[in-house]
Specification:
Blueprint lengths: L3 E6 L4 H11 L4 E7 L8 E4 L5 H14 L5 E6 L18 H17 L3 E10 L20 H5 L11 H24 L2 H6 L2 E6 L14 H9 L3 H7 L6 H12 L11 E5 L2 E3 L10 H17 L6
Helix pairs in contact: 1-9, 2-3, 3-5, 5-10
This protein binds NADP nicotinamide-adenine-dinucleotide phosphate.
NADP nicotinamide-adenine-dinucleotide phosphate binds next to helix 1.
């Protein structure tokens, strides 16, 4: 049996770094990481900055030159950021959080679909912040309108407070992740090839780089909560970086028994759970509109899907 070709974004730091190391330590894998400047020993690195669709395209072109046989068994889209405002734009002119967390990964997925093997696993990292019932300390999404999220100046639901808008940009991008996975499952390619498609929610995982652009208070609290006793008391459903990373690796390697109908896997207090995602995430109309509008945004910027 040949080695599993694993392609991963967001494997160079945060809990994704733990995931990547676990995957590399498995003798049956070949791990390709999209990277900006950091490297993980034992992985094959290919430059990738998700703030540029051209960069996504060149990443895919490099990957497809390197993999032999030309098939990917595991695709992990874990990279993500939490921008403190909605003013930043990618080189393609889209709002940064939406574009990096959703649109660039959507493009990556679409370009790599022809290379995904039979029984491939596709895992995209989402977040409990997408669901109002989680009562996360982040404003939940109001919609998954790709055009409004890409161009916030068009969004009729913007709040007066910039911090709320920034939180919503993040939680909405993670809602988009679940809708994308749900749509992927419904495609002919996924059905014919028996792909396993998972939206992985690592739960609150303090100590990663996710809040690096937050206020000093947020950054300090994020570090303080890495002390296990404080984390468990103040954020009882949260997880350690180690647990969040290893769970993602186990999902990638097929070591987690995911019930057949489930696409949403959430880690809560170190335990793997299979809750239903939010009501918006279960909405089929939103799911179809997001897929269509994301394609439209790519076409507008002349990024074709082949
Ligand atoms: N921590 C949490 O509480 C939590 C909860 C729910 C969901 N999540 C999600 O989990 C994932 C990992 O987050 P984390 O907490 O481990 O954060 P992190 O430490 O900041 O890691 C983020 C990863 O994404 C990569 N990345 C960010 N922007 C990128 C870009 N423009 N191009 C390419 N790669 C980029 C980073 O690359 P570099 O190594 O180059 O910086 C890093 O590998 C994210 O999708 C996040 O939204 C986190």
């Amino acid at each position: 049996m040949g080695k599993l070709n694993i392609v991963m974004t967001g494997g160079t730091s945060g809990f994704g770094g733990i995931t990547a190391k676990e995957l590399i330590n498995n003798p049956h894998t070949r791990v390709f990481l999209g990277n900006r400047n950091k490297e993980i020993q034992g992985a094959e690195h290919i430059p990738l900055n998700l703030n540029s669709l051209e960069n996504v395209r060149s990443f895919v072109s490099e990957i497809t030159k390197k993999i032999k046989p030309k098939k990917i068994q595991v695709l992990i889209c874990n990279a993500g950021l939490n921008h403190p405002d909605i003013n930043s734009r990618t080189v393609d002119g889209f709002e940064m959080t939406f574009a990096v967390n959703h649109l660039a990964h959507f493009y990556l997925l679409r370009l790599l679909m022809p290379y995904l093997d039979t029984n491939a696993r596709i895992i995209m990292t989402t977040s409990g912040t997408h669901d109002p019932s989680e009562n996360a300390m982040v404003a939940p999404p109001k919609h998954a309108n790709a055009i409004w999220l890409a161009y916030p100046e068009k969004d009729k639901t913007l709040d007066e407070k910039m911090t709320i808008n920034a939180q919503r940009a993040y939680s909405s991008s993670k809602l988009c992740t679940i809708l994308t996975i749900r749509h992927l499952v419904s495609t002919a390619e996924a059905k014919q090839n028996n792909w396993q498609c998972i939206a992985y929610d690592p739960g609150a995982t303090p100590g990663t780089g996710l809040l690096q652009k937050g206020t000093l208070f947020m950054r300090l609290a994020w570090q303080v909560f890495t002390i296990p006793i404080l984390r468990k008391r103040m954020l009882p459903k949260s997880n350690s970086i180690q647990d969040a990373g290893i769970t993602l690796a186990y999902l990638a390697l097929g070591k987690v028994e995911v019930p057949a109908a489930n696409i949403y896997v959430a880690l809560r207090a170190g335990k793997i759970t299979f809750p239903l995602p939010s009501k918006l995430a279960q909405n089929d109309t939103l799911m179809q509109e997001l897929w269509r509008d994301s394609e439209q945004l790519l076409l507008e910027t002349k990024f074709i899907l082949k």
